[in-house]
């Protein structure tokens, strides 16, 4: 029997990979949701969005599209024009307006440790890959996770190019027309909570705040993340 529930598509952000979604994916599958993990190369905002858009175009039926951090900027572009995407869920995510970059948004409010956390690796042609320095990954990126778990996540992180983080979003952005939900991490040291609140209010989002949560709120509070995804699906895609 085919599932009557929408497909939940998960999009990771920078300095992460898809494995961080495992606790969320397990709960979604147990609840009967089809789940897909979208490729996010972290090479450039427009090209990353094209990769995700291609996957969305291959899925039949309604979709709930979920993005963490930089992945929020990616889904905001990738969902544009796709009538199957019924709701957007942002998990401690960037939600840019056309013309804004994630770099500009992270600098809009005080409190981010990104600048002091980055470890650059020069690439050919003058480009650069950016990692979160493993020495500060736990404190700055995943403070509410056990140290041993944060250490593994630091090892398995994938870099984003500096160009991707600095690339302005094109337009239009999908959150203008698609209902959206924001899970705000209340102790985030990457995207300041004030910045997350600003973006959520601007997009007219349904908002839930997890007090004391780090930037990896969906890893430390997977049941809360899944409950918000389920709410988005129930209200708009079933």
UniProtKB/TrEMBL annotation:
Pfam families attached to this UniProt entry: Abhydrolase_6
GO molecular function (one): hydrolase activity
Domain AB hydrolase-1: 8-227
Domain of life: Bacteria
Keywords: Hydrolase
Record-linked PANTHER family: AB HYDROLASE-1 DOMAIN-CONTAINING PROTEIN-RELATED (PTHR37017), ESTERASE_LIPASE_THIOESTERASE DOMAIN-CONTAINING PROTEIN (PTHR37017:SF11)
Protein name per the record: Alpha/beta hydrolase
Organism in which the protein naturally occurs: Catellatospora coxensis
Organism taxonomic ancestry: Bacteria, Bacillati, Actinomycetota, Actinomycetes, Micromonosporales
